[in-house]
Write a structure and sequence with these properties.
By secondary structure, the protein is mainly alpha-helical. 86% of the residues lie in helices and 0% in strands. The chain has one domain: Four Helix Bundle (Hemerythrin (Met), subunit A) (Up-down Bundle). The N and C termini lie far apart (49 Å).
């Protein structure tokens, strides 16, 4: 059976594809000094839903949760703590992009500088974060688990994926409900 990190690494490849498109969008913005709010909304939705809620959700709610029950080396514990802080940073940067887009849409021309700056930070952040997980952390983490534990985590990851779509759209309905009260 596949190790539980297999799906996480596959998710990394899709995140990398979106980051590459964001990099091209930065070049386009710099070339014509205009932002595309629709693109930013798509990028933010992808980061929030796929990269953070789905991907980081599995890491935090399954892999990291189970690792916290293990006697990690100081180095592995420090790396896991660092990755958790990086997830928080990714959320912060994504919110900053939303805020900059809102300022741009409301007519604040200087917001384009913030849009480019935050997008550039995200474009630099994700590849480094992914490389750290792929090449160092995931390999180190697997030594703490038996084959049976890995199989249980993998099952839980698949269940997480199956249920995610329900939670994503439940949140969207609650959002529109609250805007109509």
């Amino acid at each position: 059976m596949v190790q539980p990190i297999g799906p996480l690494m596959i998710e990394h490849r899709l995140i990398e594809r979106m980051i590459a498109v964001m990099e091209k969008e930065i070049e386009r913005i710099e070339a014509d000094n205009t932002a595309n709010p629709n693109f930013i909304e798509i990028a933010v939705d992808f980061i929030r839903t796929y990269a953070d809620r789905c991907h980081h959700g599995k890491e935090e709610d399954i892999l990291f949760r189970d690792l916290k029950k293990k006697d990690l080396t100081d180095e592995d514990q420090a790396l896991m703590d660092e990755l958790i802080q990086e997830h928080i940073l990714g959320r912060k940067l994504t919110q900053e992009l939303v805020d900059a887009k809102e300022r741009y849409v409301s007519g604040t021309d200087e917001a384009i500088i913030s849009i480019v700056d935050v997008m550039r930070q995200l474009v630099e952040f994700y590849p480094q974060h992914i490389e750290k997980e792929d090449k160092v952390f995931f390999k180190a983490a697997m030594k703490y688990f038996s084959r049976e534990e890995m199989d249980l985590m993998l099952e839980e990851e698949y269940k997480f994926d199956r249920e995610l779509i329900h939670y994503v759209f439940e949140d969207k309905v609650e959002e529109v409900e609250s805007s109509h009260e």
